[in-house]
Amino acid sequence: MSFYLKYRPRLVSELDLTFVRDTLQKAMKSGKLSHAYLMVGPRGAGKTSAARILAKLVNCEKNQKGEINEPCLKCSACKAIEEGRSVDVMEIDAASHRGIDAIRELREKIGLAPAEGARKIYVIDEVHMLTTEAFNALLKTLEEPPEHAQFVLCTTEEHKVPETIVSRCVKISFTKASRDEVVRSLQKAVKGEKLKVDEKALEELAGAVDGSFREG
Asked: Which pLDDT tens digit goes with each residue over 110-169?
C-alpha cells in the first residue's frame, strides 16, 4: 500500500489543509452539517478523504444523540466506512458514469433507508463530467433530498458545474497545499514508518510537488 493511502486522514483534526480542517471543525461545533457539499480543488488535495470523514461523522454511533464529535473509528459504522465496505456510502465516478441513466439509478435508490448507519452518503467524484441531462436530474434530487441522504460532490473544474447545482451546496475550496502543510503530511509517514529523514529533505520534497499531498 502506498504511503498516501496508508496515512490518509481519518479524522477532521488530521486533515492537512488548514482551511478545510477549520471549516469542518466549525460545522461540528455548530451541530449542523449540510445535506450537500461541493468540494472544489486540484487532484491530490484530500477531497475524497474529507468526503469519507464526513460519512463517518454522520454515521458514527456516538454521534446519533445530537452532538457532532470526531468519529470514534471503533463502531461498526466507522469500521465499515474505513474498510470501504459500507453499503451506505456510494462513490460514483462521473468520468465513467456521466449520463442520465446513472443519475436515474441513483434517484431510484435514494428513497431506500440506510442499511446500517443514520444516513446514506453519495460521493460523486469529477461531478463536472456529468451531461446536461444528468445535471438536471441531479438538481431535482438536491432540491428535495430525503432526510437520510447526504451528497458530497467533488470536482477539479468548478466552472463546468452549473450554478444551479453550486447554489444548492456548501462549497469547500481545497487549494494547493503550502510547503508547511505538505511537510506536516509527510511527517506522518516518517513517524509511522520510523524513518530518519532530515527536515531540510522534507522541505525540499514539499517544495517540488506543486502542493499535492498525493505526489508528496
From this structure: 888 888 878 999 999 999 999 999 999 899 889 888 889 999 999 999 999 999 999 999
Q: What is the largest CA-CA distance in the chain?
A: 54
Give the separation between CA 73 and CA 71, rounded to whole angstroms: 6
Pick from 30, 24, 18, 28: nearest CA to 152: 24
Q: Give residue 4's region: left, alpha or beta (phi > 0; psi -120 to 50).
A: alpha
Phi-psi domain of 51 (left: phi exceeds 0; alpha: psi -120 through 50; beta: other): alpha
Beta bridge partner(s), residue 123: 91, 152
Q: Which of 77-81, 162-166, 178-182 has the lowest mean pLDDT?
A: 178-182
**Rounded Cα gap, residues 102 and 191, in angstroms:** 42
Q: Could you give the CA distance from residue 132 to residue 134 in angstroms, rounded to a whole number?
A: 5
Residue of higher predicted confidence among 135 and 103: 135
What cell was used for 44?
A: 491530490
* DSSP-derived 3-state class of residue 126: coil
Closest CA to 54 of 143, 152, 149, 127: 152
Whether residue 47 contacts residue 39, with contact meaning beta carbons closer than 8 Å, is answered with yes
Rounded CA-CA distance 130/32 in Å is: 29
Query: CA-CA distance, 17 to 15, in Å (whole number)?
Result: 6
| C-alpha grid cell, residue 195 | 524513518
